[in-house]
Fold Penicillin-binding protein.
Amino acid sequence: MFEKVKVAAELCRRKIAGLWSWYKNLYKGRAWYTKTIIVICSLIISLIIYLVMVDINFLWLFGKSPGFSQIKNPQTNEASEIYSSDGVLIGKYFNQNRTPVKYEDVNPIFWKTLIDTEDERFYSHFGIDITGLFAAVKDMIVHHDARGASTITQQLAKNMFRVRTQYSTGLLGHIPGVRMLIMKSKEWIIATKLELIYDKKDIITMYANTVDFSSNAYGIKTACKTYFGITPAEMTAEQAAVLVGMLKATTAYNPISNPKNSLKRRNVVLHNMLKHNDLTRAEYDSIIQIPIKLNFSIESNYDGQAQYFREAVADELKDWCNDNGYDLYTSGLKIYTTIDTRMQKYAEEAAIKQMKQVQRNFNNHWSGQDPWRDEKGQVIPNFIENIAKRQPVYKALQLKYDGNEDSIKYYMNKPHTVKLFDYENGVIEKEMSTMDSIRYMVHFMHCSFLAMEPQTGEVKAWVGDLDFKSWKYDKVTAMRQPGSTFKLFVYTEAMNQGLTPCDKRRDEYIRMEVYDKKKGETTIWTPTNANGRFSGDSIPLRSAFARSINSVAVRLGQEMGIKNIINTAHEMGIKSPLDEAPSLALGASDVNLLEMVNAYCTIANNGKHVSPVLVTRIIDKDGKEIYKAQREEKQAIPYKSAFFMQQLLMGGMREPGGTSQSLWSYIGSAPDTDFGGKTGTTNNHSDAWFMCVSPNLVAGAWVGGEYRSIHFRTGALGQGSRTALPICGNFIQAVMSDAAFAKYHGKFRTPDDTDIKYGMYSCASYVPVRNDTVSTDTTDVVTENESNVVEDENAPETDENTPLDDWDL
């Protein structure tokens, strides 16, 4: 092997020696001018050979370079844009905030300004400005003042392909001075390739779309919006001069951080325009007197509308992007969603309007007392301290001070400027400690709201909480106990098994043995109605559902089978796992608002389930549609069951004692529309719900504390009919009053099924029970700090302090 290498090396040496001998003979006996021509040709050939070697990364000496295919399809980071169903740009996803713009969409004055200042021979050179290059060398030698000789094409090569960072410089790049030569060589090569592939208009447009204008503004479109609040088409000569002036040094000539330097540089740029006859003397003299006027705003991922919804979209698209090779933050996608900005506005206004009142009630309710209580009503010790220990600031202090509790406690209680939520001012700043800020923030009650089209599954409004900047945890997808709103599935299964709204069940005391998994033993469960009473009467299911009588729901749960109820709930849209326990009939198992609204849509859609849709289609940066939503519809329950449940939901408003009757005060603007509803409240008032159903629009709201230990005490103030219902009511009132949403008006379909008889659901012969036995929507279920297991064999005594629903107002 060694001998073969030795032989090959010797042959190579002889060939090189022969070539050198031939080259020297070219000069022998030649005239001086011939020799000069040979030298010049030799240098040109050597330069070409060198550039080819750099381009192909000969012997790995120079590092890789982009090929023609990469230059034809450059990969630049572009922000993805997210649009509402009514065509409004509601936000962006980006790492570098860059949105491309077409040449025609930019005021021509910008192109003139750019060329006059950055590359005056742009339209005459082939990517490398030889004249400018020699002028730069002359200045460096004669005046010792190096000036830039990079053309716009070279700068594009540097910006788009990041030759100084993305592409290595190979083995020779470790030699000082040689590295810069290689980098410059690659810029020349790429610039030449760009000129071969693209025309001048494309090149200058790509440059304007990739250049960094500082302040997280990449490209001319984002820069115009960031510094002046305008579009590129609206740009004036003085604004163009400010932006072009920044390109020499974005920090030194930034109009925000260095306004004086920026003004001087702007005027230099304007003088260049005068010199190239792109400004008249009168225009120049006038413009240089104008001060720089800014409308500065740095755009972030959290700017725009419907922030909680946009985060949900990002979460939903995560797997799709991974599977299809896209990056939501760099691929420049246009994402078209289902949200309607007008309905979103109505939803946010409805939530804030109601939550202001809820917060006032909550503050008055506790009147200075700590609201975090255990099942016995006692203040939970170290509640705030335990929350603090889960915060990033606490964990950072733990690391910094090696777990020293005295140091951690000192800094956690040291006052400093903090930002806090405030209903009147949005975000306020106060001087207080981290511990005090936690105490302040946990006193707030929270909410979520969702509106969905039952026929399409399209989400039209999504409110994840009071304020995204203060609480980024989305309550629409938070897992909470649904209370009596879960009775929908109990009664639906009863209809599936042949019962009708007019079939009766007795409202009576129930005592059953329940196996407690935590304790590993069997205990006695005696579920109660919210007012602690049982009438003893046989009540039609329509009335029992309307008045949310717990004893009837529990009895139905046992008759129908908890497993069957779970299966029905899952068929209708519940995705969360459900506990197979008798208390499930009263909503003891956690679900979230998104799946609850989707399940109620199944009833409104005549038993057909359609999965939630957030995104309708996606367009890539080349204008090609790469995703289109496919509606998945299935008949989850029989139409007969859906029709009967429509009647039960409407009964919540029409039956004496119905817990949804206060919805009437909001729907006067839509007498041509059927409405139904269901309230829900857990028995310690930590979760309050309302579900509003109409034929073409379903809405749901949840109200509660950030932590389940923070809630109203027993009383009407924490019930779903008082807290969550008004959010839905205000929203429905606004939407139904808006002529733009006339399509959401309508009646439930008249049954054409001969098996459905009027007497099955009208219950005309039924006489309502006495007022003193009217129930509320409050359920008796397990929550975070309480047990629903009662070992007393006697029925509970009446709670005289438990108020009745105001159904008869």
